[in-house]
TrEMBL record:
Keywords: Antibiotic resistance, Cell membrane, Membrane, Transmembrane, Transmembrane helix, Transport. Its main location: membrane. One of its GO terms (biological process) is response to antibiotic. This is Multidrug export protein MepA. Pfam families: MatE. The chain crosses the membrane at residues 12-29, 41-60, 66-82, 94-116, 136-154, 166-189, 195-215, 236-256, 276-299, 319-346, 358-380, 392-411, 417-436. One of its GO terms (cellular component) is plasma membrane. PANTHER family: MULTIDRUG EXPORT PROTEIN MEPA (PTHR43823:SF3), SPORULATION PROTEIN YKVU (PTHR43823). GO terms for molecular function: antiporter activity; xenobiotic transmembrane transporter activity. Belongs to the multi antimicrobial extrusion (MATE) (TC 2.A.66.1) family. MepA subfamily. It comes from the Bacteria. It is a multi-pass membrane protein. It is found in: Cell membrane.
Amino acid sequence: MEKKEQLQTQSIPKLIGTLSAPAILSMLINSVNMAIDKIFVARGAGILALSGVTVSLGVYLVLQGFSLLLAAGSASAIALGLGKDDKKGAEKIVGSSVTLSFVLSLLLTVIGLPAARPMMIMYGANAENIRYAMEYSTVLIAGAVFFLLAQTANSIIKGMGYAKRAFINVFVSIIVNTILDAVFIFVFGWGVFGAAFSTVIGNAVSGVLAVHFLCRKSPARLKLCNMKPEIRTAKTIISIGTPACVTQIALSLLSLTCNHVANKVGGSAAVAAYGIVYSVIMLVYMPVLGLGQGVQPIIGYNYSSKNYVRTKQTLTYSIIYATVFCAVMFAGIELFSPSIVILFGGKSDPNLAAAASYGLRLFSLSLPIVGFQMIGANYFQYIGKFKQSVILSALRQLIFPISFILILFHFIGMTGIWIGAPISDFIAFIITVLLIKKEMMQKR
């Protein structure tokens, strides 16, 4: 069955399963990729090195934010374009997106390398861990071109409905990263530098595989004649991708806030505890984001085709699946948090393990409602209503949590970090419900 016919007629649950399973695995593996670096660093270089890598997370999120400006924007724009049978326009988006990824990554590298040390201090590095933070962040910034290319090209592939192919590209990169992590850290003794370098090589492999597919096998192909960006095309990509970019930049600012608060309250050990909690929570969030990426072409195609019944069905099933998954993960974390923390590097320090386990249980309190909020916010991005998506993302990821954390830590220390996020999620959930309800009433 042709992809177009699939999106138009196939059973929604079956279609979601077909398109989302590879995307979920891809996002999960992406999260595992970061977790692997932290696990290897914690066991091969120690807690101080782990806290340094945690500080560097802010830079990673900035890079990811700018990559999503192109990746999410181009994927959504292509899905909407193919829904209107505009293959020529879709190919212009493919070419422009790849070119923009090179230009943007070059700018980020040129600006980022000289600013790396001030950035690490801004993100909460201290005299103990700044050396490790600098090692990890400078390698990531230098390899930004491979990161942005891989993110953009694979998102384009998913936007066309070929989530399985994008998953294969990402999976291969993770295998490469895991093998090289072990070799660089334990055999060569390269420590944090080795962890970062293996990540860059993995990104390069994924990017090459994705570009090869776009040149040879995709329905809207990467062609040299389309690689000169048009202002109109670039504006379309950037306007649609802005919500995803804002979300990641907000996460970076949240990371900055949490690192500073943790460092002020408990030093490098508290920063390391936050790093462990964040890694575990991302393993829950990423499959939900993968589900969202999987349903993106279904929602974008059917919405642009004015098939609002199918669009609403897809949204409903997605919210149900995300909520069930998050509820199960919530139960697992509450029951097994000590064992989970030990797996993620807390074994060597009992105090670190206890602090991270306590924090993980509190941080996850809002998981049963997070699925609805995340899918709901992304829904507005997929239908081209970036204003609502930006508002929802900014409230949940930036305005509410940072405000609560900065207020609460003065009274309850690290607990302020752990409960600031759940409180924010509950408020953002209520706002999302109201906006989704309004949207559904308009499309009856």
